[in-house]
Amino acid sequence: MESPTSPAASRLDFYDFIGRMRRPAAADLFHSIRSFLTSFSHGDPNSAAAADEDGGKVQAFFAEMETAIREHPLWANATNQEIDHALEGLEKFVMTKLFDRTFGSSVEDVKADMEISEKIGLLQHFVRPHHLDIPTVLRNEGAWLLAVKELQKINSFRSPRDKLTCIMSCCQVINNLLLNVSMSNDRTLSGADDFLPILIYITIKANPPQLHSNLKFIQLFRRETKLISEVEYYLTNLISAKMFIINVNGRSLSMEESVFQAHMESARLTDHISVASTSSSQGLGTSITGLSEESGDPEGLRFPFMDSETESLTPAEVKQMHELYRQVVTKYTMLSKALRKLSVDEDQPLNSVND
Amino acid sequence: MGCSSSLPANNAGGVGNINNENSATDPKNLRVKLVLLGDSGVGKSCIVLRFVRGQFDPTSKVTVGASFLSQTLALEDSTTVKFEIWDTAGQERYAALAPLYYRGAGAAIVVYDITSPESFNKAQYWVKELQKHGSPDMIMALVGNKADLNDNRSVSSQDAQEYAERNSMFFIETSAKTADNINQLFEEIAKRLPRPTPS
Question: Which segment of the chain is annotated as a signal peptide (chain B) (predicted)?
Answer without folding.
Answer: none
